[in-house]
Amino acid sequence: MGFGDSEDSFHPPSIVPFQGCGQGNGAGPPIWVSVSSVIIQMMTAMGFGFECLTAIDSHLLTAQCFCFVDDTDVIEAGKSVEQSGEDICHSVQQAASMWAGGISATGCAINPEKSFWWLIDFGWDSREGKWRFRRTPQLLPDNNNNN
To answer: Model's pTM, two decimal places?
Structure first.
């Protein structure tokens, strides 16, 4: 979801101390890469993220997040196919808290109005012999079947 073009452009601040690089600043993207790359490395060191073996040649693929300019999608996944979405909720919260803490350490903050999450999980459909996306009612604790 995009939030549109900014109505304002960057102007050097008249207040001190100045924090951040300012909306519309042409140096904003490289500054964000410099800051976020350190936080991404921190997330990697703490064991957060996603990893799997590629289907054809079994190469290890890892990812901690997807970033575009100043927007980031943090990824947290189960360590095996045996783990359900419900099983990893605690580690998902830890990953979100770690990312927010890293952002806070840089002097910035997460914008709650732009922050949201999705639980994407699969369940085995034994009738069709296929993995399927689990629907919302199947993710509720008192209806934990995989149909």
So the answer is: 0.70
